C-alpha cells in the first residue's frame, strides 16, 4: 500500500462528522443500559423490544462491513451472480418465520442450543454451544478484520491498532447496555449504512462519461450484470441451484440456529413480532444486496478509465485484496463532508457486527455453558456476564489479527461458519422431533459432521453455500442409526 503521505486526507468537516458519530453512538448505547437488573435484561432486553427495531438490527448484523465492503468487491471482481444466493436468503427467512419462531417462545430459552439440551440433556447442549463459540468466533474475527481497512487507509494505522480500536469502541456500549444497546444502535447504524450505499449508487454515474446509460451499457457488455447461472455445480460460485437449495438451508442455520440472529428474535415481544422481524428481513435483503452489488459493477466501469490512486495490497498468496476497492473510492473520490458520512456508514456497519458478536458469544457462554449461571445474586450474575463480554472482545482481537491474510472476507467468513452450521442445524432439528433421547449419539454425529466438513473445506472442491446442507446430511446419517441403537439398548436393559 502507498504511504500515508500519498493518501488524500479528510478535511475538518469529515473529522467532525466521524468524531460526533462515535460520541453520540457510545453515549446512546450507555444511556440505554440504564435499569438493567439481571442477565435476562442484559441478553434478551427483557423481551420487550419492538419488532421493527429487531428487524433493522438483524439487517445491520447480517450486512455489516461484509456487505459495505465485501459485496461490492465480489461484483467488482465478478458479476451479480451472488443474487442467486440472496434469493435463497429471502426464502429461508420466510420459512423460519413460520417453522422455527414458535419453538423459541414456547419455552423460556436464551439460545437455540437450549432446545438441544431439553431433548438430549445438558452435555449435548454444551457441545452445541462450543460448536457455535468456535465457529462464531472465527467468523466474527474475519468480520472484525475487515473493519480495519478504512482506518488503514485513513490514518495509516497498523492492522492490530485498527482492530483494537473498533473492538474497544464496540465493547463500551455493549458492556453497559447489552442486547438492548446492540439492537437500538444497530438500527441507527443500518440507516446510516443504507444511506451511504444509496448516495454512492447515485454518485458514481456522475463521474463516468455518458452517465447512467454509459455505465450500465459497459457493465452489461462486459458481463458484469450477469445474474442467473443454471449450470449445477458444487464448486463454482454461484448458480441458481446453489441459491434455492444450499442458501435456503444455510439461512435455516444463520437465522434459526446461529445465536447472532436468534438472540434478536428471542428479544421480541411475541411470536407474531418475531415473525414480522424475519419476514421484513427476507423482503429487505434483496434490494439491499442488489444495491451494493451494483456499486461494485459501477466501480469496475469507473476504474476502466481512471487509475486506482492507492495500491491495492496483496495477501501472502500474491492475490489482490479487492475488499479495499470501495474504501479507496470513498477516500479518493467523495466530496468533503460526504466523505465523512460515507466512512461513518462503513464504521456503522463494522461496529454493528462486532457488538452483535460480543453479545451472542457472551450470552451462549453464560446461559448454555453455564458460566456463573448458578449465582443466586442477580446483580453479581449481571456483573460476570459483562466480564465475559470483555473476555470475548479480547478473543476477537486475537482471531481478527490471525485472519488478516484472507483473499475474500465474504467467502472466508461464510466458509468458517459452514464448518459447524450443519451439525448445529441437525442437533436442533432432532430436538424438535425427539422429546427425549440419549446425548452421546447426537454428540458423536456433530463431531463426525465437523471433522468431515473440515476435510471437505481443505479440498476446496465445494463452495460454501453447500456447506450447511452437506454438514446437516452428515449429521443425520451419523446420528439417526446411533439413536436407534441407543434406544434399543435401553429397551434391552429395561
What is the name of the CATH class?
Answer: Mainly Alpha
Q: Supply the number of helical segments.
A: 18
Low-confidence blocks of residues: 1-5
* Helical residues, percent: over 70%
Number of β-strand runs? 0
Radius of gyration: 22 Å
The span between the termini is 70 Å
Mean pLDDT: 82
The string of secondary-structure elements, in order, is: HHHHHHHHHHHHHHHHHH
Quaternary assembly: single chain
What's the architecture in CATH terms?
Up-down Bundle
Question: What is the molecular shape?
Answer: globular
CATH topology: Sodium/glucose cotransporter
Task: Describe the overall structure.
This protein has 494 residues and is an all-alpha fold. It has one domain: Up-down Bundle (Sodium/glucose cotransporter), CATH 1.20.1730.10. It contains 18 helices and no strands. It has helices at residues 12-32, 39-44, 51-77, 83-99, 101-106, 113-120, 122-155, 159-203, 211-221, 240-254, 259-266, 271-305, 325-333, 338-367, 378-402, 409-433, 439-459, 467-493. Helix 4 (83-99) crosses helix 10 (240-254) and helix 10 (240-254) packs across helix 16. The radius of gyration is 22 Å and the shape is globular.
Characteristics of this structure?
Sodium/glucose cotransporter, 75% helix, mainly alpha, disordered N terminus, 494 residues
Amino acid at each position: 500500500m502507498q504511504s500515508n503521505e500519498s493518501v488524500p486526507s479528510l478535511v475538518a468537516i469529515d473529522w467532525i462528522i466521524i468524531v460526533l458519530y462515535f460520541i453520540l453512538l457510545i453515549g446512546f448505547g450507555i444511556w440505554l443500559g440504564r435499569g438493567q437488573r439481571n442477565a435476562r435484561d442484559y441478553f434478551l432486553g427483557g423481551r420487550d423490544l419492538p419488532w421493527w427495531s429487531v428487524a433493522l438490527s438483524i439487517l445491520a448484523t447480517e450486512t455489516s462491513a461484509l456487505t459495505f465492503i465485501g459485496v461490492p468487491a465480489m461484483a467488482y471482481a465478478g458479476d451479480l451472480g451472488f443474487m442467486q444466493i440472496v434469493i435463497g436468503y429471502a426464502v429461508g427467512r420466510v420459512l423460519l418465520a413460520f417453522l422455527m419462531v414458535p419453538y423459541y417462545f414456547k419455552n423460556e430459552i436464551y439460545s437455540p442450543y437450549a432446545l438441544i439440551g431439553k431433548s438430549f440433556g445438558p452435555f449435548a447442549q454444551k457441545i452445541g454451544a462450543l460448536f457455535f463459540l468456535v465457529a462464531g468466533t472465527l467468523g466474527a474475527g474475519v468480520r472484525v478484520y475487515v473493519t480495519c481497512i478504512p482506518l488503514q487507509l485513513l490514518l495509516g494505522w497498523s492492522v492490530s491498532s485498527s482492530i483494537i480500536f473498533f473492538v474497544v469502541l464496540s465493547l463500551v456500549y455493549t458492556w453497559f447496555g447489552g442486547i438492548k444497546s446492540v439492537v437500538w444502535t444497530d438500527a441507527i447504524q443500518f440507516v446510516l449504512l443504507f444511506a451511504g450505499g444509496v448516495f454512492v449508487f447515485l454518485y458514481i454515474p456522475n463521474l463516468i462519461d455518458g452517465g447512467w446509460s454509459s455505465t450500465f451499457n459497459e457493465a452489461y457488455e462486459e458481463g458484469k450484470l450477469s445474474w442467473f447461472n443454471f449450470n449445477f455445480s458444487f464448486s463454482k460460485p454461484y448458480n441458481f441451484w446453489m441459491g434455492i437449495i444450499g442458501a435456503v438451508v444455510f439461512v435455516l442455520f444463520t437465522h434459526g440456529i446461529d445465536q447472532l440472529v436468534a438472540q434478536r428474535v428471542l428479544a421480541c415481544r411475541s411470536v407474531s413480532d418475531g415473525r414480522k422481524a424475519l419476514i421484513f428481513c427476507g423482503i429487505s435483503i434483496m434490494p439491499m444486496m442488489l444495491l451494493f452489488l451494483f456499486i461494485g459493477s459501477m466501480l469496475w466501469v469507473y476504474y476502466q478509465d481512471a487509475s486506482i490512486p492507492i495500491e491495492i495490497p496483496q495477501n501472502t498468496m500474491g492475490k489482490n485484496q479487492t475488499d479495499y476497492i470501495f474504501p479507496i473510492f470513498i477516500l479518493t473520490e467523495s466530496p468533503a463532508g460526504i466523505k465523512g458520512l460515507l466512512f461513518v456508514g462503513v464504521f456503522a456497519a463494522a461496529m454493528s457486527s462486532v457488538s452483535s458478536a460480543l453479545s451472542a458469544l457472551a450470552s451462549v457462554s453464560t446461559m448454555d455453558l453455564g458460566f456463573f449461571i448458578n449465582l443466586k445474586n442477580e446483580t453479581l450474575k449481571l456483573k460476570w456476564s459483562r466480564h465475559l463480554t470483555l473476555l470475548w472482545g479480547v478473543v476477537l482481537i486475537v482471531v481478527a489479527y490471525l485472519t488478516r491474510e484472507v483473499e475474500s472476507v465474504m467467502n472466508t467468513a461464510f466458509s468458517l461458519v459452514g464448518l459447524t452450521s450443519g451439525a448445529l442445524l441437525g442437533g436442533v432439528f432432532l430436538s424438535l422431533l425427539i422429546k427425549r433421547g440419549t446425548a452421546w449419539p447426537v454428540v458423536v454425529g456433530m463431531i463426525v459432521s465437523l471433522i468431515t466438513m473440515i476435510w471437505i473445506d481443505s479440498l476446496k472442491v465445494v463452495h460454501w453455500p453447500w456447506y450447511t446442507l452437506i454438514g446437516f446430511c452428515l449429521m443425520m446419517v451419523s446420528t439417526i442409526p446411533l439413536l436407534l441403537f441407543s434406544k434399543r439398548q435401553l429397551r434391552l436393559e429395561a
